Amino acid sequence: MTKRAIWALPYQVFLALFVALPLVLIALYAFQDAAGHFTFGNFVKFATEKETMNTFVYSIEIALITTVLCLLLGYPAAYILADTRLNPSSVTVILFILPMWINMLIRTLATVALFDFLRLPLGEGALIFGMVYNFLPFMIYPIYNVLRKMDNSYMQAAEDLGANPTQVFTKVTLPLSVPGISSGVLMVFMPTISTFAVAELLTMNKVKLFGTSIQENINNGMWNYGAALALIMLVIIGLTSLIGDGETSEAESGGLL
């Protein structure tokens, strides 16, 4: 082994023990019943159990709403921060990124305290507000990075050819920023659809997401069904990542066409 390969050995061991092995165990438990026999019953139960299916669909709905709101709020913020003509200070950029340095549970508890102070009810509205608040920086940061590194000569060339500001944005800036949008959507959608602690705190356990269903089954000793639900979640996240990577590659290869 080369010296570089030897230095990589601890990381390979870590990945094997704490990434690969848990995934293998989830897959094994998902296709077993309580007696350890191979079965597809856990997945049949998921497809036929109305409550779990409704929770699953509702979680996707909340994740989509959160992602769209984060995109609508995050893109203008990232655009303003990356616009050199506006000359935003580094302090302003840090203020937008600062929430990422604070633990999500602490931010969520602060949101609960804010709603209590304003005497607003905790429920679906509080859940969406808290989701957007928690994950908005994850939408802003990748879009900001792409816009910041964008070559301004493209915009200048479009303006020289007679394009107005709206045309410059829709024909040049927006297509070139698609990789950042795709990254931001993945960074918001994937954790939102699987979270459970945020929903429990912001709704006082009145609203249950798919991550909560997984947690409840595992806590109640139903490891096999919980593993099956977790495997379904992993498949969805994997497919979403593949679709996002494909869209990013397409945008990078032909964003101006």
Tell me the count of domains.
1
Please tell me how large the radius of gyration is. Answer: 22 Å
In quaternary terms, these chains amount to single chain
Mean pLDDT: 86
Residue share in β-strands: under 5%
- Uncertain residue segments: 253-257
Please, how many helices? Answer: 12
Which second-level CATH architecture applies?
Orthogonal Bundle
**Could you name the CATH homologous superfamily?**
MetI-like
Shape estimate:
globular
Q: Please describe the biggest sheet, giving its number of strands, its sense, and whether it closes into a barrel.
A: none
| Helix and strand sequence | HHHHHHHHHHHH
| Helix-strand makeup class | mainly alpha
Helix amount: over 70%
User: How far do the termini sit from each other?
Assistant: 47 Å
CATH topology: MetI-like fold
CATH class (first level) name: Mainly Alpha
Strand tally: 0
Q: What does this protein look like?
A:
With 257 residues, the protein is mainly alpha-helical. It has one domain (39-254): MetI-like (MetI-like fold). The chain is built from 12 helices and no strands. The protein has helices spanning 3-30, 41-48, 50-82, 90-97, 104-117, 124-149, 152-160, 165-176, 178-194, 197-203, 210-219, 223-254. The protein is globular, with a radius of gyration of 22 Å. The relative contact order is 0.13. The model is unreliable at 253-257 (pLDDT under 50).
Overview features:
257 residues; mainly alpha; MetI-like fold; 79% helix; globular; disordered C terminus
